[in-house]
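mind reviewing this stuff:

——
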Amino acid sequence: MSLLRRWFDPIRSSWFYQKPSRQAVLPTENGLSIYLRLDDVYSYLAVQQLSQLDEILSDELKPLKIIISHTASEPPNSMSHEEWQNYCLNDAKILAKQHRFGFDEFPEIPSPESLKQAAVILKRTPLQGQNFFHLLEDIFHMLWQQQYGKLRTLHAMAVKHQLPQHFSERIFTDEPVPAAYFEFGGRKYHAVDDLLRLTRRLKQQKLLTGNPIFLINHIEWREHLINDAEALTEIQTLHPELDIYIALEDPMSWLLLAYIKEELADYYDIQLKVYPLSYQGRDWFDWSLATRVSKRTGVAFTPFCRPTEESTLEMAKLFYSVQENQQIDTIFTILQAVWTKGKDLSFLKHFQQLQQQLGIEQLTDQDVQSVLEQNDALCKDKHQPDLPVLELRIDGQSYVFNSLYRVWMIESIFSNVLEEKYKTASTFN
């Protein structure tokens, strides 16, 4: 561990956390843009919000720029193209159900021919503004619901009657786009997951003319879906279990584990199990994102000392030196020391202090690195693009999801389980 990191990380992180986290005003001269791909399922969900968003944009941000790419980025986290494609389709289906987007029951990637036809239609249409947004949404519906007959008809009409158009607010590019996103003031926002954050920013800068209502059934941090005592007891009696795969050098591991433990596990009586992973290089993280998550979840953060590969191995040694029934409290204490007290566990003094605090007399004689690599293999088998990876088991079913953007699924799944039970009971009666 660099002495500079040990000495200066706690000071820098405390200063960063305490300074205003939100820049007062983001520049508006470049307007608001959205990057889409016709073969991107998240773009399909995003275009269903564009007409409503455009209606309430101030003139300062109009026209909303549409940038359509023909090129996908490489899949994240070393996933194969097929794994990434299947993940996106399943994830989008969950989002569509939660937020009531239009979506096919059995989604398929549009055919190459249909994608070419759709691009020709969009390049040649003279429509602008709301009319273009409605056409764009219709085109995506045709692509993703395999309405290829309608698409062929529109394509034939476009080729016969219209010439390619050139609008500054409509750009076609080969620049790789991983998934739909907005760009405003030099910042990128996931088109679905960050939509509410974007509209909060626009509202703060008085760039919206109305109150946006997006993402129906959005679940906020520290908001419980189940408040009825009888329903809560029913979930608890199902004995839900949650496995969490975490990178020890990633602040999201601390922020999300602490949130889940304090806000969800205790409330719903969830049995937690943590699987630490070998060093993933995630100590080079977005400080502003971690700070924002801390403030929205109410989880303490800073002063911290970013763990190195050596530090994570020492953290894992402490974790595996206690009984399994003590591991959740132990990992909580370890991460708390690192991410809220600036402890560097590659520094012997800090390590020994924490070992004493945890009451560990004898360190494990396991090959901890080997255990971490076994956890890596288990995690990889879940085929998820980001960390932490979570696997929830309840009522005989297993659900796998990932990252801070899907923690809300825990409560959503509980709600859906109860709804299915009530339907079954009603049918039986």
